[in-house]
Write a structure and sequence with these properties.
This protein has about 180 residues and is mainly alpha-helical. Helix content is about 80%, strand content about 0%. It is built from seven helices and no strands.
Length: about 180
């Protein structure tokens, strides 16, 4: 009985990952039909990317709290969970009145990164997680800067601009941890 329970718990992440393979397709299809060739198409794409990025940060933050070795890495993971959960709620509130559908899970590529980290612990996890956080936050900051500058929807432009200081702070924290881990 114990072996069956352990086996089922070990399979749950794989079952979940498999079931989420195309989880964002309905949202993408909705947004494509609703905003194709309109001024809102770029904004809807940004919302999709911002939402999946936040969901990935939450997933990875939870992994950091479980698998990290350094207390600072665990704390960084907690910060990612807290801040990105709040950001996703704000994004949901901003997107809903505009009829922009949100995905229900990170992208396949983001889930693959999480799965790769899931098998690591300790110093190996810390290094790979923080390296990923530096890279991901640079990419996210770039997307948010573009939306804040060139987005068509004034509410989403303002929201993206308002999130940039927190995202830059996350990047700074990750870069400091990255430097510490290199020593």
């Amino acid at each position: 009985m114990k072996k069956s329970i352990v086996y089922m718990v070990a399979l749950l992440p794989m079952i979940w990952l498999g079931s989420c393979k195309d989880a964002d397709t309905p949202a993408e299809e909705h947004n494509e039909q609703a905003f194709n060739n309109t001024d809102m198409e770029r904004d809807a794409d940004f919302v999709m990317k911002a939402a999946t990025a936040s969901m990935a940060e939450i997933e990875l933050g939870n992994l950091a709290m479980a698998n990290g070795a350094l207390p600072e890495v665990k704390q960084f993971g907690q910060t990612m969970v807290t801040d990105h959960t709040a950001a996703n709620e704000e994004l949901r509130a901003a997107a809903q009145p505009k009829n922009i559908a949100l995905p229900v899970a990170p992208t396949d590529a983001q889930l693959k990164k999480a799965e790769e980290l899931r098998g690591k612990t300790g110093a190996d996890f810390d290094k790979d997680y923080i390296d990923l956080m530096v890279k991901d936050h640079k990419d996210v900051i770039d997307a948010f800067e573009k939306e804040a500058e060139k987005g068509n929807d004034p509410d989403l432009k303002t929201w993206a601009g308002a999130k940039l200081p927190a995202l830059r702070h996350h990047l700074q924290m990750a870069e400091e941890l990255q430097q510490r881990l290199k020593k």
